[in-house]
Design a protein that fits this description.
Strand content: 25-35%
Largest sheet: 5 strands, antiparallel
Order of helices and strands: HEHHEEEEH
Number of strands: 5
Number of helices: 4
Structural class: alpha+beta
Helix content: 10-25%
Distance between the termini: 77 Å
Radius of gyration: 28 Å
Shape: flat
Amino acid sequence: MRFLICGFVATALFGCAATIDQRGYVPDPERLGRVKQGLQSRDDVARLLGSPSSLGTFDDKTWYYISRRIESVAFFEPKVLEQQVVAIEFDETGFVSQVRRYDMADGREIEPVDRVTPTPGKQMTVIQQLLGNVGRFGSRK
């Protein structure tokens, strides 16, 4: 009996073990060190580092390489253990103008806005909806 209980407890604890997920890609420092401002084009950077994780929101002058390690335990909220972002900016001619690195300390928590955009149209109460149909349906002949 004791063996059965120990087996059940071990199985329950193993099921709650943390899972670590690695997502994204950030080039290693050696490769990143080979990117030189003003000397390399987008094609050169793509050959050296690979395609970026994301492009700038409003234009493609900034390439982002993003990596994140996340720990998940059962039903709890996942926890970000490590995050790295490399931003490579290109000038108007398509050559590297700046290389920046960011980590967890550079991140900021944001609070989403809970406002709801109203939709146009008539807002009816429940009573108006119920009484609005009274008399609309006649008998069929």
